[in-house]
TrEMBL record:
PANTHER family: MICROSOMAL SIGNAL PEPTIDASE 12 KDA SUBUNIT, SIGNAL PEPTIDASE COMPLEX SUBUNIT 1. One of its GO terms (biological process) is protein targeting to ER. The chain crosses the membrane at residues 23-41, 47-67. Component of the signal peptidase complex (SPC) which catalyzes the cleavage of N-terminal signal sequences from nascent proteins as they are translocated into the lumen of the endoplasmic reticulum. Dispensable for SPC enzymatic activity. This is Signal peptidase complex subunit 1. Component of the signal peptidase complex paralog A (SPC-A) composed of a catalytic subunit SEC11A and three accessory subunits SPCS1, SPCS2 and SPCS3. Component of the signal peptidase complex paralog C (SPC-C) composed of a catalytic subunit SEC11C and three accessory subunits SPCS1, SPCS2 and SPCS3. Within the complex, interacts with SPCS2 and SPCS3. The complex induces a local thinning of the ER membrane which is used to measure the length of the signal peptide (SP) h-region of protein substrates. This ensures the selectivity of the complex towards h-regions shorter than 18-20 amino acids. The keyword Membrane applies. Belongs to the SPCS1 family.
Length: 102
């Protein structure tokens, strides 16, 4: 049963993140304007809040899951460089002598 969850993709590329952010902000902005105008017309602030919350819920459904439209530009990673087994790898900072402050 848990193997089903491992097949669900959980990543989003950078262009997909930008698109999701733009969609999220656009839906929130549009729902806020519609909610404000509608609430102003009927003079009920509660309807403004309901419309904005509805826009928030719709934007969450459209942008939080990693839909395929957000995964169309995958990153090409550099190939792995094998380490030589003869020498232990040290970081450049570790090879420098540490200076003692007096």
């Amino acid at each position: 049963m848990l193997s089903i969850f491992k097949t669900i993709p959980t990543h989003m590329d950078y262009k997909g993140q930008k698109l999701a952010e733009q969609i999220f902000q656009g839906i929130i902005l549009i729902s806020a304007v519609i909610g404000f105008v509608y609430g102003l017309i009927i003079e009920q602030f509660g309807w403004t809040v309901y419309i904005v919350l509805g826009g928030f819920a719709v934007s969450c459904v459209l942008t939080l899951p990693p839909w395929p439209m957000y995964r169309q530009n995958p990153l090409s990673w550099q190939p792995l460089i094998p380490e030589s087994s003869g020498e232990p790898s040290q970081k450049p900072q570790e090879s420098l002598k540490k200076k003692k402050h007096k």
